């Protein structure tokens, strides 16, 4: 349980009463009650208010707010306010502002704007976090700490450059090691003094975001920046823990946000929280995958849905409304996938600046007679009714899909072989193929214990970091099924090619080697021609984008290319290794292939779909004390039927019982559990 003070699914969100005058606050409190809201995230952007100058702190407003909320029955997720520095700080200490990738020194403005390697920023932020912890540690309203806000962005200041050199010295000890790791004999880049090293910006090695001359340098810069921001988080974390030991600490993450290695961050977070902002056309399976990734950051521990909009965003090109029922449905999607909170940005809609068109529980009209408020209040009642039933329930998936931020950086920084390759999309294809067949999967990092899974899928495992290949070998030897794809096993953690034949360190377990990699033009494709039938697989499927030209060296060839000069070469192989099997898919296949392939491999491993259901139904299960809770979410507007098996089950929300066929209402859901 996140905090046993509040033993239910938390319901609330970001609340900014400082933007309003006192008479409005009473109205807020009345409406929170009406909506069943029991947690407010406060103080997120209040640094300038609570520290009006270098030597003055003023907590009177915050004291009163904490007390008022508590009296109203609303608990507090207390932010440290360090996500945007005050103007006085930037004015007096210009080093706290960032320098951008083009070398431009920023002035005061915006948010998420502090130079993470500024000692001044770090000192002020840490001090503030400590003061807040000391003051509010025993406040009865406090249920969680929220450090800063959506950490992110890179900085190219002198301070960061100096810190980068120190970071590199720790990592490489000698310049000799560094020169080798970065392959600096290329283009005459040999460094003879640490001071010669500069950040990879548009003034040096990079252009257009992810284009770089030196992958090794750019990769280390990304690691360094993720660590720099993490260091800021850790300083605040430790300052809080000095006073407040029992209240969980989090910071709000952003799903697949590219810039930070969240698996590293998760090690220092008591509970994961994240902000979920899908667009009208984001595939629901992509959102599902993102929830699963957030759950996977801490080995399946339940997470907080920290923010979502009740209705619409403001920062997208097209800020469509969530259709009636969708806010509720997507809230339950989060719960189904491991969230123990449902929280919004924002509780009351602001009237000025750039977020005034962002949806809120309380709209500009100011009263409760709105579609959005009615939907919010209905969900509030349901969450109240669910009590603690689902808290702490876990996933019991038997398939793990590997996602690695550092591999992603390396793939995205890669110059060639194809601009069409998108690591996250490639992972999503595999995830989606399972999702569409109602087969559960966890999203996992490379440090996860693989032995709890029957099948581990690692699409585009381009970079094999130390220890991963051995781990995969041990997993397969012991009977596991490993699946990987084209463009895997190519480089080590420094983006240096493992010579002696791709897929390098994974070659032994896969029993193949790849000689060349062909990049197809967007309009081109090749074929996967099955050698006979195997399970659901048979006939011919399409593939495109990249084609590895592979040779079997021990692996069985299950399919071969159907055209081009490499027609007849293997495209799908299976290698028996110890008690298990390792599959290699040498190209990017069409969805039908992945559907049939993953169904076949799952069946072989005795992994069954949760239900039989048409497209539009999402099924997922959480298990608590051995009791499964099966969520059936219907993403279509019309009712759909799912076959759930003969056992009688009861819906937690309505008490209705089902066996055989269950009708899932359009844009609605069932949470089915055993009937006792
Ligand atoms: C983020 C931030 C919030 C708010 C919302 C708007 O998630 O954390 O402060 O800006 O976006 O969608």
Structural class: alpha/beta
Mean pLDDT: 98
Q: Count helical runs.
A: 17
State the share of residues found in helices, binned by percent. 25-40%
Strand content: 15-25%
The CATH topology name of the largest domain reads TIM Barrel
Summarize the structure.
The protein is an alpha/beta fold and 676 residues long.
Task: Describe the protein's architecture and organization.
- The protein has 676 residues and is of the alpha/beta class.
- Helix content is 29%, strand content 22%.
- It folds into three domains: 10-156 and 221-386, Alpha-Beta Barrel (TIM Barrel), CATH 3.20.20; 399-604, Rossmann fold, CATH 3.40.50.880; 617-674, Immunoglobulin-like, CATH 2.60.40.1180.
- The protein contains 17 helices and 27 strands.
- Strands 12, 13, 14, 15, 16, 17, 18, 19, 20, 21 and 22 form an eleven-stranded mixed sheet that branches. Strands 7-4-3-2-1-11-10-9-8 form a nine-stranded parallel sheet, covered by helices on one side. A five-stranded antiparallel sheet has the order 23-24-27-25-26, covered by helices on one side.
- Strand 5 and strand 6 (211-212) form a beta hairpin.
- Helix 5 (119-136) runs parallel beside helix 8, helix 8 packs antiparallel against helix 13 and helix 14 (423-435) crosses helix 17.
- The two termini are 25 Å apart.
- Residues 149-150, 252, 275, 277, 307, 313, 345, 355, 358 line the site of alpha-D-galactopyranose.
- The site of alpha-D-galactopyranose has 10 residues, from loops.
């Amino acid at each position: 349980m996140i905090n046993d003070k509040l033993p239910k699914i938390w319901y609330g969100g970001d609340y900014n009463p400082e933007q309003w005058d006192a008479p409005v606050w009473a109205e807020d409190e009345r409406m929170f009650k009406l909506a069943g809201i029991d947690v407010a995230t406060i103080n997120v952007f209040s640094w300038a208010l609570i520290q009006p100058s270098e030597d003055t702190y003023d907590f009177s407003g915050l004291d009163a707010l904490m007390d008022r909320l508590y009296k109203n029955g609303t608990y507090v997720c207390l932010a440290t306010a360090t996500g945007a520095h005050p103007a006085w700080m930037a004015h007096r200490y210009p080093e706290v502002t960032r320098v951008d990738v083009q070398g431009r020194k920023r002035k005061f403005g915006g948010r998420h704007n502090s130079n993470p390697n500024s000692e001044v920023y770090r000192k002020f932020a840490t001090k503030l976090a400590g003061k807040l912890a000391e003051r509010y540690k025993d406040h009865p309203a406090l249920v969680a700490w929220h450090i800063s806000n959506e950490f992110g962005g890179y900085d190219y200041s002198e301070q960061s450059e100096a810190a980068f050199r120190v970071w590199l010295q720790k990592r490489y000890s000698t310049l000799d090691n560094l020169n080798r790791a970065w392959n600096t004999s290329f283009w005459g880049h040999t460094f003879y003094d640490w001071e010669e090293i500069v950040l990879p910006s548009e003034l040096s090695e990079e252009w257009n975001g992810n284009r770089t001359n030196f992958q090794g340098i750019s990769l280390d810069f990304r690691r360094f920046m993720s660590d720099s921001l993490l260091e800021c988080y850790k300083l605040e974390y430790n300052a809080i823990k000095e006073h407040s030991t029992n209240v969980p600490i989090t910071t709000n993450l952003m799903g697949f946000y590219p810039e930070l290695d969240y698996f590293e961050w998760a090690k220092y977070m008591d509970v994961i929280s994240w902000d979920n902002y899908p667009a009208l056309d984001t595939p629901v399976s992509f959102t599902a995958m993102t929830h699963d990734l957030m759950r996977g950051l801490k080995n399946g521990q339940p997470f907080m849905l920290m923010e979502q909009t009740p209705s619409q965003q403001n920062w997208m090109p097209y800020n469509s409304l969530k259709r009636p029922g969708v806010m509720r449905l997507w809230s339950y999607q989060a719960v189904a996938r491991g969230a123990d909170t449902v929280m919004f940005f924002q509780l009351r809609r602001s009237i000025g600046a750039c977020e005034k068109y962002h949806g809120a529980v309380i709209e500009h009209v100011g009263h409760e007679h709105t579609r959005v408020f009615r939907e919010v209040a209905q969900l509030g009642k349901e969450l109240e009714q669910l009590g603690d039933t689902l808290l702490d329930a876990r996933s019991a998936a038997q398939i793990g899909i590997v996602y690695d931020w550092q591999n992603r950086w390396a793939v995205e920084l890669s110059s060639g072989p194809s601009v069409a390759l998108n690591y996250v999309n490639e992972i999503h294809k595999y995830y989606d193929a399972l999702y569409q067949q109602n087969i559960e999967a966890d999203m996992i990092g490379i440090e996860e214990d693989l032995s709890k899974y029957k099948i581990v899928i690692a699409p585009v495992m381009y970079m094999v970091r130390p220890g991963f290949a051995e781990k995969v070998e041990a997993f397969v030897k012991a009977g596991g099924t490993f699946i990987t794809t084209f463009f895997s096993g190519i480089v080590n953690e420094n983006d240096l090619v493992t010579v002696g034949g791709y897929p390098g360190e994974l070659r032994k377990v896969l029993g193949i080697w790849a000689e060349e990699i062909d990049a197809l033009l967007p309009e081109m494709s090749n074929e996967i021609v099955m050698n006979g039938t195997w399970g659901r697989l048979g006939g011919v499927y399409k593939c495109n984008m990249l084609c590895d030209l592979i040779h079997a060296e021990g692996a069985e060839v299950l399919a071969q290319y159907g055209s081009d000069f490499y027609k007849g070469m293997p495209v799908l192989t299976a290698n028996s290794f110890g008690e298990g099997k390792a599959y290699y898919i040498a190209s990017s296949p069409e969805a039908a292939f992945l559907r049939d392939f993953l169904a076949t491999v799952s069946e072989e491993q005795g992994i069954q779909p949760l239900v039989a259901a048409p497209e539009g139904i999402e099924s997922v299960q959480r298990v608590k004390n051995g009791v499964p809770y099966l969520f059936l979410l219907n993403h279509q507007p019309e009712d759909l039927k799912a076959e759930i098996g003969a056992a009688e089950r009861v819906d937690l929300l309505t008490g209705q019982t089902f066996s055989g066929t269950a009708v899932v209402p359009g844009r609605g859901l069932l949470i089915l559990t055993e009937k006792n």
